[in-house]
Each structure stands twice: as structure tokens, then as C-alpha cells.
Specification:
The structure holds two protein chains of two kinds.
Chain A (H helix, E strand, L loop, with lengths): L12 E4 L18 E9 L14 E7 H4 L7 E7 L3 E3 L5
Antiparallel strand pairs in A: 1-2, 1-5, 2-3, 3-4
Chain B lengths: L3 H29 L5 H10 L17 H30 L3 H7 L18 H28 L5 H11 L6 H11 L1 H10 L1 H5 L10 E6 L4 E6 L8 H4 L9 H9 L1 H9 L8 E6 L4 E6 L11 H5 L4 H5 L7 H9 L13
Parallel strand pairs in B: 1-4, 2-3
Helix pairs in contact in B: 1-3, 1-4, 1-5, 2-5, 3-5, 3-6, 7-8, 11-12
Classes of the chains: A mainly beta, B mainly alpha.
Chain lengths: 93, 344
């Protein structure tokens, strides 16, 4: 089942939190504190085989490779991140 | 089969992966909750009778090295199926979800990590060691199954039926799906837009784990899949991943320097004009790559096209084969192998 009441939309600039007090561990360390752009909005996904309860809406966030590593190739890393890990980045900041 | 060393390395890596990541964490989980106790295992070992054994002793079909390598690979497959048998019961007995197993095996905490065994020596020594490991690991699995029965978590009949299901041959869906996407634009559109939904009308197994997203390779984009936190992959549709997909070196390097990683590990140079897009499957989405159709294959039938689709090409570690490469592989007696698919 999917819902669409997600906070962010495709193209929004977002920042990943450094830590998450809710304890959801599914965000890898190399993107914590990094900036990216929302690439896909998946909404709330029910996945009872993987975990109990229902997580917040899920996004695929696009990061420039140079934002998350020391490599400067013009490539990109796309990572699935739940909503509570993200905050909005204002264009002028 | 030519590179015996590579085959043996794959068995070594996979065997340790399945022991340390799939089997033993579940054993610990159940031990902690008194579903079984160590003493139950001891008792089951003493009372074990040959006629009640799920896992039968194996023998190679010849003395030559190829037959022995094949036998180790098949034995590993049997071990992995055995873990699937036990896991299903563990999951139901304690309402265990994948996330519990990830915690138990130390995905988030080094403290819980089960150390993998290292392998040294000549090829012959490594094969002898593997034989012994497989024998020992399988015996522990056997005893564990017997203990589950003795403690009343399952019955022999139920497990035997499931064991039979685990041995049913299932066609490999990867080739079928990709070949259809190459030849049927409408299906391709549906596959990219809706994922799993599009598979329903094809009659291939849809799987159940998470949301499926298929990413398309084009002249401008080369997609690669990884799971840096564990090894998520749509195995319920496409079968087992290659051992390197689960290996730390791939999972670390592919997000640090994708081009170098693809070049060093798979000998593939992605042209400068293409953007490499790495998908890190960290959560509820499972990904695979729709590779580009090789040039000069427009006249081929879906059945023939399906044979060009390798597992590597669905992860982004390779391209779909050109017909000449398939011919060459056939001549050498090594056709690309479809991965094993287990019922979920």
C-alpha cells in the first residue's frame, strides 16, 4: 500500500541528519550530514517481512559523488532515506 | 568451467557469508529466547538416526578437479537451502523479521559481528578444508532442525514437505523479464513505471519483498546497484546474488569511486560520456538494472535474447552479452549460469 502524503517532492534540496533519535538505522554513515536532491518519492511502504511497524515516507535522494566521497567524477549516488532523516535546504543557504 | 580458483573462492566466500550472516545469527536469536537451548542441540545430536536425516552425505561424481568443484558448489547450494528451511521455521516460531537478523548479526554494531573464517593454502588444501567445513556446518544445521522438531516448533512432515518445495526447479526470471522489455515497448514502460505490478501478467514469479524499482541503462546513464548496509537485492524474483555483491570490498568501493571499482573488479570501462548512477538499496526498495540491448540482436527471438542476460548485467557490473560472446562461452563449455532461485 502506498500513500502520497509526503513532505518533500521531486527536486527538493534536502540535508541528511547526522543522527536520528528515533533509532531507525537504515541510513548509511557516508551520507549523514550531506546534501542531496529528492529524486523519487515512494511514500509510506508497508514491508512486514523486513521490519515491524510502518516507517515514515521513503525517498530516493540523489547525491553528487563529490558530496559523499573524495572522488570528483561527475557521477551520482542515489540512496533511499526515510523522511525523519531529512530536512529542507533553502536555496540561498 | 576453467578458473577453478575463482569457483573455489566463490564457494569459500558464500559459505562463510551464509554461516555468519544467515544461519548463526538466527541460532543466537532463538537461543536467547529459549526456543532451543544448547543442551537441546546436544540431545538431538546423540539421538540422531540416519533415516531421520534431512541432509544426506554427498559424493563427487568423479575424481577430476571439475567434478570435485561442482560437487562442492552443489553441496553449498544444499547448505543454503537447509538454512532457508530452518529460517522459515525460526521466523514463524518467534515472529522474526529481517531487521532482527540484521541487528543480531551486527549490521549496526560491530560487537555482534560473527567473524568469518580465512582461507589459505594450495587449491587442493582449500578444497579439502571446504569439504570438512561443509560437513561440519551441515551437521550443525541438521542437529538444529532435529532440535526444533523435538521442542515442538515444527513437525517432521511439515519440514519434509517444505524441503521438497525447496528442491523444485524454478526458471530464472531475469532473462525472461529483460528480453520482454527489449521486445515489447509497452511492457518496458509498465516495468519502469510500476515495477512488480508489470510482472503479474507475465506469469513470472512476482516476489514479495519490498517495492521493486527497475532502472534503465541508456547511452547517457549506466546504473549500478549496491546495498551498503547489508546486501538487499530482489532475490525473491532474481535468485541469489554473486558472492562479491555481499563482500565488503564491493559495498565500500562502489560508493567511493564507482568507475574505478567497476574497472578493477569487473574489467569494465564505462565511457566518459555516461553518468554512473549508483543505487544504494538501504531500505524498502529493491532494485535491478535493465541493461541495454546489444547491437545487432534486433532479429533475435525473446528466448534467444534471454540467454544474453547475465546476473552481472542486472547489477550493473557488466553489459548484456553480445551473441559472439555467448558463442565463445559455449565453445569453451561455459555458458553463463542462471542463479538459483528459491521459493520465499
Amino acid at each position: 500500500m502506498e500513500y502520497t502524503d509526503s513532505k518533500y517532492k521531486i527536486g527538493d534540496a534536502v540535508m541528511v541528519a547526522a543522527e536520528n533519535s528515533t533509532g531507525n538505522p537504515r541510513t548509511p554513515k557516508y551520507i549523514r550530514g550531506k546534501r542531496g536532491v529528492v529524486g523519487s518519492v515512494h511514500g509510506i511502504l508497508e514491508n512486514i517481512r523486513d521490519h515491524r511497524g510502518i516507517h515514515n515516507p521513503l525517498y530516493t535522494v540523489r547525491f553528487d559523488l563529490s558530496e559523499v566521497s573524495t572522488c570528483h567524477d561527475q557521477d551520482s549516488i542515489w540512496v533511499d532515506v526515510h523522511e525523519e532523516w531529512l530536512s529542507e535546504v533553502r536555496p540561498d543557504s | 568451467m576453467h578458473d577453478f580458483d575463482a569457483h573455489i573462492r566463490a564457494v569459500e566466500e558464500d559459505l562463510e557469508y551464509y554461516r555468519a550472516k544467515r544461519f548463526e545469527p538466527r541460532v543466537f536469536y532463538l537461543l536467547r529466547r529459549n526456543v532451543v537451548m544448547f543442551s537441546d542441540l546436544l540431545k538431538a545430536r546423540v539421538e540422531l538416526k540416519r533415516k531421520n536425516q534431512f541432509f544426506k552425505p554427498r559424493k563427487p561424481e568423479g575424481k577430476n578437479i571439475e567434478a570435485r568443484v561442482r560437487y562442492l558448489e552443489e553441496w553449498l547450494d544444499e547448505y543454503v537451502k537447509g538454512i532457508a528451511l530452518v529460517s522459515a521455521r525460526a521466523v514463524e516460531a518467534m515472529d522474526m523479521v529481517t531487521e532482527d537478523n540484521r541487528k543480531e548479526r551486527g549490521d549496526y554494531d560491530e560487537f555482534f559481528k560473527i567473524k568469518k573464517k580465512e582461507h589459505h593454502g594450495t587449491l587442493e588444501e582449500r578444497m579439502v578444508n571446504l569439504e570438512q567445513d561443509l560437513k561440519d556446518y551441515q551437521e550443525l544445521l541438521e542437529v538444529f532442525v532435529q532440535a526444533l522438531i523435538q521442542r515442538g516448533w515444527s513437525t517432521r512432515e511439515e519440514l519434509e514437505q517444505r524441503w521438497k518445495q525447496l528442491h523444485e526447479q524454478r526458471p530464472w526470471a531475469g532473462g525472461v523479464i529483460v528480453a520482454k522489455a527489449w521486445t515489447d515497448p509497452e511492457f518496458k514502460h509498465a516495468l519502469l513505471a510500476t515495477g512488480r505490478e508489470a510482472l503479474r501478467e507475465m506469469g513470472v514469479h512476482q516476489g514479495k519483498v519490498g517495492k521493486l524499482v527497475v532502472v534503465e541503462n541508456t547511452d547517457k546513464v549506466h546504473n549500478v546497484i549496491v546495498c551498503t548496509l547489508c546486501s538487499c537485492y530482489p532475490y525473491d524474483i532474481l535468485g541469489d546474488t554473486p558472492w562479491w555483491y555481499k563482500h565488503e570490498s564491493y559495498r565500500t568501493n562502489i560508493v567511493q569511486n564507482p568507475r574505478a571499482c567497476i574497472r578493477d573488479m569487473f574489467g569494465l570501462d564505462i565511457p566518459a560520456g555516461k553518468e554512473v548512477q549508483v543505487y544504494d538499496s538501504t531500505s524498502d526498495v529493491r532494485y535491478f538494472v535493465l541493461p541495454q540491448q546489444p547491437a545487432g540482436t534486433e532479429e533475435m527471438s525473446e528466448n534467444e535474447l534471454a540467454k544474453l542476460v547475465t546476473v552481472d548485467s542486472l547489477i550493473g557490473a557488466g553489459y548484456a552479452l553480445e551473441p559472439a560472446q555467448l558463442q565463445q562461452a559455449k565453445k569453451l563449455g561455459a555458458t553463463p549460469e542462471a542463479p538459483r532461485v528459491r521459493p520465499d
